[in-house]
Design goal:
This protein is an alpha/beta fold. The chain has 2 domains: about 130 residues, Leucine Dehydrogenase, chain A, domain 1 (Rossmann fold, 3-Layer(aba) Sandwich), CATH 3.40.50.10860; about 130 residues, NAD(P)-binding Rossmann-like Domain (Rossmann fold, 3-Layer(aba) Sandwich), CATH 3.40.50. It has 10 helices and 12 strands. The strands form 2 sheets. The protein has a 6-stranded mixed β-sheet. A 6-stranded parallel β-sheet has the order 9-8-7-10-11-12, sandwiched between helices. Helix 1 crosses helix 9, helix 4 crosses helix 5 and helix 4 packs across helix 9. The mean pLDDT is about 95.
């Protein structure tokens, strides 16, 4: 049987742990497949999608900055991808249609929100209006949180997302330090804090003692903001669990196997971040 080939596309892409994640599961379930990194420019997207149609690639994950840009190149967008206008998983279905799906929403819910108590009365703040933000917003909506605000350094990007999610409260960036004390769930959906990137210009003082802070970044595992809030005994999460759960769903869509998330896998991923 021909070896299957999967890939993740984005730019930059070298930091991604997705190949390690999927190769671990390929080995565990005796699937003859490989998974690679594809650093791509926007002009390359059409040819990459064509490789799926031609059978050269069996599926791809999509990361920044192409989760919206690739939509025009697939045949149909389904489920959470339809609601978010954001695609991170692509495959060829039984009708030979190229399908765009979103597993980030599942990843966020499974990793952080499935056990959230009294969600309807929580106030949530999404920091950032980039590629993962629609998935973050929709995951909060699906978790029954009704009061959702967004704040972004470029205000127009927040307003653009409000066209998709009309219930959003849009805040101006200069109010972040002042307003952050009002929220029960805070999610960093920016690249601020990513390894070798800029970080936040303040240290999150004023966050409620019973708030939850979620950082979608997993490299480093402990960002400056997570370290500060942990020191204040505030419940924090990094982006590793989201990576694993969204990958679990992508793996199922491609291989019709629901892979186990075990301690050996988690330890392996963490070891790659040290």
């Amino acid at each position: 049987m021909k070896k299957k080939l999967f890939a993740i596309i984005g730019n930059p892409i070298a930091h991604s742990l997705s190949p390690i994640l999927h190769k671990y599961w390929f080995k565990k379930y005796n699937i003859n497949a490989d998974y690679t990194l594809l650093s791509a420019e926007e002009k390359d997207l059409k040819d990459i999608v064509k490789r799926i149609r031609d059978g050269e690639l069996n599926g791809i994950n999509v990361t920044l900055p192409y989760k919206q840009k690739i939509i025009s190149l697939v045949d149909k967008v389904i489920n959470d991808a339809h609601h978010t206008n954001s695609v991170n998983t692509i495959y060829l279905d039984e009708t030979n249609s190229i399908v765009g799906e979103n597993t980030d929403v599942f990843g966020i819910q499974a990793a952080y929100l499935k056990e959230l108590n009294d969600a309807e009365n929580k106030k949530a703040l999404v920091i950032g209006a980039g590629g993962v933000s629609p998935s973050v917003i929709f995951s909060l909506e699906k978790s029954k949180i009704k009061n959702i605000s967004i704040i972004n350094r470029t205000h127009d990007k927040s307003l653009f997302l409000k066209k998709k999610f009309s219930y959003l409260n849009v805040l101006k960036w200069n109010l972040l330090k002042e307003k952050i004390k009002e929220f029960d769930v805070i999610i960093n959906a920016t690249s601020l804090g990513l390894k070798n990137k800029n970080d936040f210009e303040f240290n999150f003082e004023g966050v409620k003692s019973n708030a939850i802070y979620i950082d979608t970044i997993y490299n480093p595992l402990v960002t400056k903001s997570v370290k500060y809030l942990k020191g204040k005994n505030i419940k924090t999460f990094n982006g590793l669990d989201m990576l694993i759960y969204q990958g679990q769903k992508s793996f199922y869509l491609w291989n019709k196997v629901n892979p186990e998330i075990d301690n050996e896998l988690i330890d392996l991923l963490i070891s790659k971040l040290k």
